[in-house]
Amino acid sequence: MSYARTLRCRKCGREYPLGPVNLCDFCFSPLEVNYDYKSMAKDVSVEKITSGPSSIWRYRDLLPANDEVVDLGTGFTPLTLAANLGRELGLTQLYLKNDCLNPTYSFKDRAVSVAVTKAQEFGFTTLACASTGNLAASVAAHAAKAGLKAYVFLTSDVEPEKLVGIAVYNPTMVAVEGSYDQVNRLCGKIVEKYHWGFININLRPYYAEGSKTLGFEVAEQLGWRSPDCIVAPAASGLLFTRIYKGLEELSLLGLIGSVNTHMYLAQAAGCSPIVNAFQVGSQHVHPVRPNTIAKSIAIGNPADGYYALRVARQSGGGACAVTDEELVAGMKLLAQTEGIFAEAVGGVVIAGLKKLVASGMIKRDELTAVFLTGAGLKTQEAVADVVQPLLIQPTPESFEEVLGEQKINSPG
Ligand SMILES: Cc1ncc(COP(=O)(O)O)c(C=O)c1O
Ligand SMILES: [Zn+2]
Which domain holds residue 123? Predict the structure, then answer.
């Protein structure tokens, strides 16, 4: 039994029954799941959570699921102390939350596992989504596991490396010749006509809840406390707001102390509408036309941009943008100091972290948790120039000859 009671409008507070609906009829603002925290608090405890499964479903009491869950084994990914990268950047307590290690290699599995569980409860037989690539893979995989049909709508310029990892689960794949914002608008029209469970449209309130588990896990893995600083990427801005909500809920339930975490969001300079608004002190996020190789987060008109902006400001955090060149350097730095190959979005976060430390926003001894939300094999092209093997004949002489040449040619 779940403690979710209603859906509540984030703006006007009107309440709705728990169903497949994402916008308030009165003010068109997003709806979010509203819980009975009093009853929840009586039931949850550190002991209960830690004796649960090593997946997001250890936090089941804090999620909106009644029935059998659809689970691929998502979550409880490593949080590792990054001593080498920390030394390089000038941080003594840098932790990396490695969500590259989820079943379909991105954090989206968290959100989708919860949304598909609800889709089943609501009786949908077909799932769908608008995606920049990662969500499509996750939806297709969960549909396969749940025995449901799936339609995934993608931007036609999605990285080719992502395509097989979507198609292999056998969804109906629709490549749309347009931007993500156009794909999303199209899906908004399709959802009105077909009775499908659109993971990031009519099921969005539940999809949003899954991302809270990133906040839960980081706090648990740090020994039940919230970090001083968090750096996370933003596309629609939803993930960023939900990491914070996860921390706030743990605090509300008395599982951690008060949350004094500074929340910093990172975007690619070629698509940074939220950062732009933060920097000019505006409350309004003005849409932009994306132009970046970080395609997973190329959303020009972010649905939760306003709320992400609010979290960054209210938490005493910030926002920063990095160029494509900087993000590529960030991907390489992460791989070459910590042995983690994250996708272009990870490069954005690492390059953003570097800037935040260099500018003194994040201080040397602050405990900082950085979110790596997708795996590098999805965007290999971004760093393809690293492949420069020594070509030799199958003889020791050839190896030594080429090695000698390389030494002579290599600087230092
Ligand atoms: C790897 C990765 N990180 C972060 C995000 C940002 O998610 P959100 O739209 O919740 O801001 C996405 C979105 O697609 C993503 O694919
Ligand atoms: Zn409303």
Answer: 4-69+108-207
Which range among 114-118, 164-168, 292-296, 405-409 shows the weakest confidence by mean pLDDT? Answer: 405-409
Same domain, 281 and 201: no
From the CB of 134, is ligand 1 less than 6 Å away? yes
Q: Residue 192: which pLDDT band, with cuts at 50, 70 and 90?
A: confident
Contact 153, 128 (CB under 8 A): yes
Task: Give me the pLDDT at residue 379, please.
Answer: 96
Q: What's the pLDDT tens digit per position in 197-208?
A: 999 999 999 999
What does the alpha-carbon distance between residue 153 and residue 253 come to, in Å, rounded to a whole number? 38
- How remote is the CA of residue 299 from the centroid of ligand 1, in Å? 9
Do 114 and 176 have their domain in common? yes
Encode burial over 192-216: b for 16+ CB neighbours within 10 A, e otherwise: eeeebbbbbbbbbbbbbbbbbbbbb
Rounded to two decimals, what is the model's pTM? 0.97
Give the SS3 label for residue 116: helix
> CATH number for the domain including 130?
3.40.50.1100
Cβ of 239 closer than 6 Å to ligand 1, yes or no, is yes
Q: How far is CA 114 from CA 43, 74, 141, 219, in A?
A: 20, 10, 13, 20
